[in-house]
Structure formats: C-alpha cells, structure tokens
Amino acid sequence: MNAIDLIGVSKMIKGSAVLQDINLRMEGGKIYGLVGRNGSGKTMLLRMLAGLIRPTAGKIHYENDLADGAKIGITIENPLFYPAFTGYKNLMFLANINKYAGAAEVRRALGEVGLDPDDPRVVRKYSLGMKQRLGIAQALMENPDYLFLDEPTNALDEEGIDRIRNLILRQAERGATVVVASHSKEEIAVLCDKLYFMKKGRIATETEITGKEVMR
Ligand SMILES: Nc1ncnc2c1ncn2[C@@H]1O[C@H](COP(=O)(O)OP(=O)(O)OP(=O)(O)O)[C@@H](O)[C@H]1O
Ligand SMILES: [Mg+2]
After folding, report:
1. Domains in the chain: ranges and CATH
2. Which of 8, 71, 91, 143 has the most CB atoms less than 10 A away?
3. Which of 42, 52, 154, 188 to mutate to test the pocket of ligand 1 (most atoms within 8 A of CB)?
4. pLDDT in tens, 107-137
5. What pLDDT is recorded for position 160?
6. Is 137's C-beta closer than 6 angstroms to any atom of ligand 1?
7. Which among 18, 76, 149, 185 is the best mutation to test ligand 1's pocket, defined by most ligand atoms within 8 Å of the CB?
8. What is the rounded distance in angstroms from the CA atom of residue 208 to the CA atom of residue 216?
9. Whose CA is nearest to atom 12 of ligand 1?
10. CA angle (134 as vertex; 130, 139 as ends), nearest 5
11. In angstroms, rounded to a whole number, what is the distance separating the alpha carbons of residues 173 and 158?
C-alpha cells in the first residue's frame, strides 16, 4: 500500500536541471529522509512527490492513486495562513476543501502538535514555532496516505521537536508513506528508515538505517 516509484525523473526549469534522473521506491509504513545542502533539490523533490510540479522526463507511479482518493499531506517551507483568523479557523477553512476532516479532526491535529484549539489569538500573533506547528497540524489533519514534510523541526523548541518526531513515527505506524526533508542529517536520522543524500538535483547516495528501534 501507498508505495511511490520514481523512474528516471528529471525536472528542468529555465534550462537548468533542478532534479536529475531520480530513481527511487518509497513504501507505506516507512519514513524516508532527504538530506542535502541548501539548493540541492530537497524541496523540489518533495514538490514532485506531491504532484505540485510535473517531471520534464521520467515517470512517477503511485500505488494508491490520487484519482482513487489517496490523500496527501504536505508542508513546504513557510506555510501561508490567513493572519486575521485563529489557527482553528485557518485549518477549518482548509479542511472544508476536501471535507475529509471535520471539527473533531482539526481539534485533534491541533492538540497533537501542542496548540490549543480554543486559543483565541489570530495567526498574526503566533510565534514562528507556533506557525510551524500549525503547518504540521494542517498536513496531518486528514490522516494522509502520503505525508511530505519540509524541514519540520525548524523553529521548534525541544518539546516541539520530540512531539513532532513522535507524531511522524505514528503516521508511519498507521501506514502512511512519510518523506521528511532536512539540511541536517542528525535532525532526521533518528526517525528515518532510509536516507537519501541529495547533491545538485541528484541522489548522490542512499543509506538504509538499521537500529531505529534502539534509538527511539
Ligand atoms: N521557482 C524556481 N524556479 C527556478 N529554480 C528554482 C525555483 N525554486 C528553486 N529553484 C532552484 O532549484 C534548485 C533546488 O532548490 P530547492 O529549493 O529544492 O533546494 P533545497 O534542497 O530545498 O534547499 P534548502 O535547504 O535551501 O531548502 C536550486 O538550484 C534553486 O535555485
Ligand atoms: Mg528546501
């Protein structure tokens, strides 16, 4: 369930290759890490996996197709919210697009990231870490089959990092295919079943992580 295959995927933007000949298979129940320097293509690969950009060459195959109702959850860099709405109202607004999640799911997702669903403050008054948590709640609220998180621990305090790591592990346990991008290997190695090291739009090396159980 929920496997994704990329076969020879490349993306050219204005004459430069931002992704080059990416070949990989990602499976449900597993957590994959994309690691690499600034500009190496992590965010582009997440966008590609989520179907937000199309390959110039190559193919992507989803075992559980969006056309058959598969759900995608994603955070890309700095998520944009309505500054004049509360966190709860922002998520309800987004939840109403697909109607997979209702008030109960939105409240649960907010609680899971450590935000109070009844917080009367509007997002304009949120701290950076609170906005980051809201973005993650948004990605999780529909219980997605595919979950793509871009630098999920940015701006989080230690409590937040622990909380989000546990949440990510639980998403894989319920069968989601989880992909996490980070510029820091140390940040995500403890979570991942497999790491892909990106360099100039290519996957330079990949490493299976054994002993994740021990590190938990
Ligand atoms: N909208 C765009 N149009 C053209 N090129 C882009 C665009 N966005 C990113 N790029 C280029 O694509 C390459 C990969 O960028 P990407 O954002 O995927 O890097 P990243 O690994 O996520 O970096 P960071 O660690 O800084 O987030 C870079 O060379 C970047 O300049
Ligand atoms: Mg990025």
Report:
1. 1-70+145-216 (3.40.50.300), 81-143 (no CATH)
2. 91
3. 42
4. 999 999 999 999 999 999 999 999 999 999 9
5. 97
6. no
7. 18
8. 16
9. 18
10. 150
11. 23
